Structures are given as C-alpha cells and as structure tokens.
Amino acid sequence: MIAACPATLVQPASLPGAPSGVPWFRASAKLVGIAFGVAPGATALELPVDGVWPDGRNAKILWWPRTRGAGATLTIRSGAYRLTVRASGGNFPSIVSLPHEGCWRLDVRSGTLHGVVFVRAVTP
C-alpha cells in the first residue's frame, strides 16, 4: 500500500525567499510547504507516524502562502484527521502527526487558498 503511494515530490533545493538549505514541496501554485521535518535527502514527502523521528526531530512543515488570500488559520484534513494552526508572520507552522502508517491525502486550506499533498506516513 505505501509503496504505491503517489507521495508529493520534495524539492531538494531551497525555495527562493525561504530558509537556506531547507527542502520544500508544492501543495498548489499558491501554497507550498517548507519541509523542516522530512528525512535528509528525501525525494518524496514521507513523515513519521505520530510526528516525531527516532532522533527527536519533529515533522515540522511551515505552510507558506505564495499569494494573497490566506486567512488567520490553516486547516489540514484527511478523513478523521484534522489539524488547524494559526498564522505566524504570514505563514503557518505545523507539526503533522498522522496516527498510523499509510498513504495520506491531505487537503490544506486557508482563506481562499487550498492545495493537496500526498504523504507516506511511516513507522521509523
């Protein structure tokens, strides 16, 4: 099941204007995720079950609106999983803590902005 997951592509190079050396991925043309919490060298969006890697790093994602239209909060949904975070400096810091292994389709929304990412949740 996980092997066939169409996990979202992680870009290894920094996104212009984002923190240097941090990979990123696209949720939509107007919304990207800065992937502080992915495994080093990852090419697909893979996060640990429960949001923490064995070395203690959290599955941190900074959701970054690339245009106007974001609201005061951003919501991530997939079935019964739901996470709502407040804006901080125009971006949305989050720790994605999926409850079990599998391929997750995450719908991400803030104001008029929305996007979709596919995540492989793994038990490290």
Name of the level-1 CATH class? Mainly Beta
Estimated helix fraction: under 10%
**What's the mean pLDDT score?**
93
What is the third-level CATH name, the topology? Immunoglobulin-like
Biggest sheet, in brief? 5 strands, mixed
- Domain unit count: 1
Name a few traits of the molecule:
single chain, 124 residues, mainly beta, Immunoglobulin-like, 5-stranded mixed sheet, 4-stranded antiparallel sheet, 0% helix, globular
Notes on the structure:
- This protein is an all-beta fold and 124 residues long.
- The chain has a single domain (24-122), classed as Immunoglobulins (Immunoglobulin-like).
- Helix content is 0%, strand content 44%.
- It has no helices and 9 strands.
- The chain has strands at 24-28, 31-35, 46-48, 60-65, 73-78, 81-86, 92-95, 102-110, 113-122.
- The strands form 2 sheets. It has a 5-stranded mixed sheet with strand order 3-9-8-5-6, with no helix packed on it. It has a 4-stranded antiparallel sheet with strand order 1-2-4-7, with no helix packed on it.
- A hairpin with a 2-residue loop joins strand 8 (102-110) and strand 9 (113-122).
- It is globular.
Summarize the structure.
The chain has no helices and nine strands. It has one domain (24-122): Immunoglobulins (Immunoglobulin-like).
Secondary-structure topology with pairs:
Layout: E1 24-28, E2 31-35, E3 46-48, E4 60-65, E5 73-78, E6 81-86, E7 92-95, E8 102-110, E9 113-122
